[in-house]
Amino acid sequence: MDNSEQQQKKDEQFMRRALDEAMAAREAGEIPVGAVIVAADRIIARAHNLTETLGDVTAHAEMQAITSAANQLGGKYLTDCTLYVTVEPCIMCAGAIGWSQIRRVVFGAADEKRGFMRFAPKALHPKCTVTQGVLEEDCRTLMTDFFRSRR
Asked: Which is catalytic among the residues 62, 88, 136, 137?
């Protein structure tokens, strides 16, 4: 197995953990977005949306995970970390990802309405790389099923 196949396998493994978080969000009545932050092939933070629970519009999965990872590492910069998130981050989260200096972002489903790639593609740190479409169908289905059930 070459490096790219190994990386793809790791990406899918960690995205499954982010999907677990998204399902926990759904069960709590939150929009089902989940995130994990990985350092040295180990999950150091996991989170899901808490905007309804906390009554806080900034309590997105990515924001919660960044705060948790910074606390875990004892510093605000996450330069050796990868963020896995089930849905493309919004502009607010992209700004926080940029300020935290996360080096890699991996997301499942694109967000055509609010995703940073359309509205703020340069918000991330200049050294950050983005991988999109990991377990995309699973991530998208979770969101579409959630919103369909609410209508």
From this structure: 62
